[in-house]
Amino acid sequence: MTLVAILSGAGISTDSGIRDYRGPDGLWRRDPDAEKLVTYAYYMADPEIRRRAWLMRRDSAALRAEPNAAHRAVAELERTPGFAVRVITQNVDGLHQRAGIAARKVLELHGTARAVVCTACHARSSMEDALARVAAGEDDPACEVCGGILKPATVMFGERLDPVVLGQAMGIAKAAEVFVAVGSTLQVQPAASLAGVAAEHGARLVVVNAEPTPYDERADEVIREPIGTALPALLKRLG
């Protein structure tokens, strides 16, 4: 059984209509002020920031997006006899699961945009329900359990990654025989370091990304072609 780890970043979801953040047309480059909407300190301190953030979520295409050929190729490899596939994703869109990979085989380093959590009592509920309340006229919906401030169940700037999830990801990186980093700039730590950990522990490291990454020199193979065609071809060759 060959253990293949897939580290996916924003680039794998651009073909699904979800823009990346740091690319040439990324959200932070087009509107640097938008970063405040996902920064914990600003979000908690300013009701106006929260109102703008809820409107951004309401208008976002992310929750309506469908998996693309790259997501489906990963799911297909996972169903191939002789392969154990684990996905470590920096994305919060849930598209790997929607493509058919069991949730237990996907580690969401930065959480999920498909749920909300109360910052006071930590009760979780669906993003869909919260956005329905926004559509009904609540501009900053509060927790229905305790009245606390609601935030998406994502890791905002200024928050720590879940140490349990990160520990599991580190274990997978150390054990993987093939480690494919796809659609990630490999600049955001500690997620990016997983590529180096995998290489240090003997994995074949493949980087699939439009722009250079800090780990290209350590990779066994670097692919610059469009992810929607390059990743399916790579995984088919692997399988």
From TrEMBL:
Protein name stated in the entry: protein acetyllysine N-acetyltransferase
Keywords: Metal-binding, NAD, Transferase, Zinc
Residues holding Zn(2+): 118, 121, 143, 146
GO molecular function, one term: NAD+ binding
Residue stretches making up the Deacetylase sirtuin-type domain: 1-239
SUPFAM superfamilies for the chain: DHS-like NAD/FAD-binding domain (SSF52467)
InterPro entries: DHS-like_NAD/FAD-binding_dom, NAD-dep_sirtuin_deacylases, Sirtuin, Sirtuin_cat_small_dom_sf, Ssirtuin_cat_dom
Recorded superkingdom: Bacteria
